[in-house]
Amino acid sequence: MVFWVLRIGFIALMVALGNSIGTELGNPALGRLVGLVLGVVLAGIEMAMKNVSLRGLTSAIFGAVLGLLTAKIVHDVMLAIGVDTYVVKLVTPVLTFVFIYIGLTFSLKKRDEFAIVLPYIRFTRSDRDEMPLLLDTSAILDGRIFEVMKTGFLSGRLIVPRFVVRELQFVADSSDPVKRSKGREALDLLGAYTRGPSAQVDIYEEEPAEGEDVDAKLVRLAKLLGAKIITLDYNLSKVAQLEGIEVLNLNDLVSALQPKVSPGQVLQIRLVREGKEPNQAVGYTNEGTMVVVENARNLIGRVATVEVYNTIQTPSGRIIFARKRARNGAGRERRSESA
Predict the structure, then answer these.
(1) Whole-prediction pTM value?
(2) Which DSSP letter does residue 128 get?
(3) How far apart are the first and last CA of the chain?
(4) Residues 109 and 129 in one domain
(5) Cα 321 from Cα 313, distance rounded (Å)
(6) CA dihedral over 228, 231, 236, 238, signed as positive or negative
(7) Residue 237, domain CATH
(8) CA distances (Å), 233 to each of 62, 142, 257, in order?
(9) Domains in the chain: how many in total?
(10) Which of 103, 123, 209, 235 satisfies CB 3.0 to 4.6 Å to 67 for a cystine?
(11) In this structure, is residue 132 part of a structural domain?
(12) Tell me: the pLDDT tens digits for 91-127?
């Protein structure tokens, strides 16, 4: 409502100015008409600009200024090489409009690449040289990244692109109750870290390109901002690394912090479900590492003493392979307490 009052007031002011100028020229009616048309056109342009981002507007201004400077250089060069003054006066207005048009269209099409010239992260303290960190959907849904943030081990500003937020909203609207719950929790966590004076996460509004999938946009945006990507997505990690982008995979961090387990080590593991192979049982260590136990299907629901014989590292984390320990007094299996 306030904006409409301002627009009407502006149009009325333009009509009054037009009437004043028209009176001086002997035609107040034409002056009022010109003022009205000009006021309405300018108000329309202002309304059309409500969907224009700050980066888009900045790029357009930059392109227009670049066009004006180019036209001025061409004008001076023509005078310097002796082109007829009449021809210069005739050609200069046309060249000015042509170069402004080229500058505007080029800058708007390439507005994301202006991040190289005016990087998004440079609007923070100039004495900070940490690389920005881009969060992808998998890292936010996992939630552990926010716990890592609390520890202070991460340096650099965390950025969540708007297209990642939209993907989180899609997950939060899923018909699957598990996905829906996870998506809503992730949005709540993200909201807590993007609001208030001590906000640690910025929402990045611009999209690098239309028609690309989320992973492609993340890789492109990381290039533009000179950022690292934080993810749990194995495929995204590999694609980003091929593009020369540094990736922080939370699974690698978890694996690095887990206690070392070597062949021959004895563990006490509660077996909770069947494995993929016949007669296998699966349990988990206190740190969440999967333990696959051979010939232990009959022990599901119990705490078993097992001996490690191998460990492998997978994209989703480490897996420990073990066998039931021989019954020698130390290898007794016992039924776990009922939940």
Answers:
(1) 0.50
(2) -
(3) 61
(4) no
(5) 11
(6) positive
(7) 3.40.50.1010
(8) 38, 11, 19
(9) 3
(10) 103
(11) yes
(12) 888 888 888 888 777 776 665 555 444 444 443 334 4
